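Entry for the shared binder. Reason: the reviewer on the internal report wants the predicted structure included alongside the sequence.
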Amino acid sequence: MGLSFWQIAIVVLLVVLLFGRGKLSALMGDMAKGIKSFKAGMAEEEKVVSAPQESLDGDDAKPVQSSAAEDETAKS
């Protein structure tokens, strides 16, 4: 019940006829750029997660202060 060579060839031919070679090559190029961007983002995220957080452990850490105006806008 698998696909034969001729069935796959017909489907590929129909896709090429419907979309044209130009659109398919542009689509594949955009997909490749997206994959590269995703991999770069994952590698960057990995670097951020594995980097030590010395600034948070040191004595120079400052407490965060919020103003009353910011609290009012957060409630709205």
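Summary line for the report: Helices lie at 5-50, 54-57, 68-75.
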